[in-house]
Amino acid sequence: MLSRMAKKDWLSSERRGKSSFYTLTDRGRDLLQEGQKRIYHPSWDQDWNGEWFVLAYSIPEGDRSLRDRLRDRLAWLGFGSMGNGLWISPRDVEQDVHALSASLNLHNHLMCFQARPVNDLTDGELVSRCWDLEALHHSYNDFAQRWRIASDSAAAHTRAAREESDVRAFVLRFELIHEFRRFPLKDPFLPRDLLPKPWGGDDATDVFRDLHDRLMGPADNWVSDVLRNAPPHIDQGPSVP
Hints:
- The structure is a single chain.
- The protein is of the alpha+beta class.
- It has 2 domains: 52-128, Alpha-Beta Plaits (2-Layer Sandwich); 132-228, no CATH class.
- The protein is 54% helix and 13% strand.
- The protein has helices at 2-7, 26-40, 64-76, 94-104, 123-130, 133-160, 166-180, 183-186, 200-228; strands spanning 11-16, 19-24, 52-57, 80-83, 86-89, 110-115.
- Strand 1 and strand 2 (19-24) form a beta hairpin.
- The longest helix has 29 residues, at 200-228.
- It starts with a helix and ends in a 13-residue tail after the last helix.
- Mean pLDDT is 86; it is low at 159-163.
């Protein structure tokens, strides 16, 4: 796992005797910061001018690894695939595409345009072709329903027993973040004009934030206790979000 992250330039390694030590690279730190932003501050409220950013790529069939890396990065940027190497986004992602092209050395393989549909195809129909928002909406609803029970339980424990185990709060918050962090990998964060109404992401985000805030104090207390009792030679690292 660590070696794969180092190959992706997310970590740098240093050998000291028989041990290897890893630190975040600038790229790895940027990735974590972007991921944190998407987890804790998801946004579907950006303005949309009705235009689509269109990207077309042509990569030799034999370079499948490069195509797969490009597709993963395009999905992370919120692009939807129309098939045959054609991807679209409702946002102006020109600068992101320039950076992506440079990092993968794809200057001669990408073409980009700003466009509007000129036939009877509606925005809703176009969205349904490129993204499965219905499945994502149901996943958000399922998350909200299951974790709302945990949120209600956490509120009851807060009122009834202040000495509730801090380690349990840490474990529950860890599980909460671990599950919710999967949504930014699937959600293109389309403008609200293009989303179903109601949108399950709103309810799921409210439940996530409420429970996360309830668990933050006792969870951080447990982490602080562990770090206070840690041997002096152990690097305590950054605080837990």
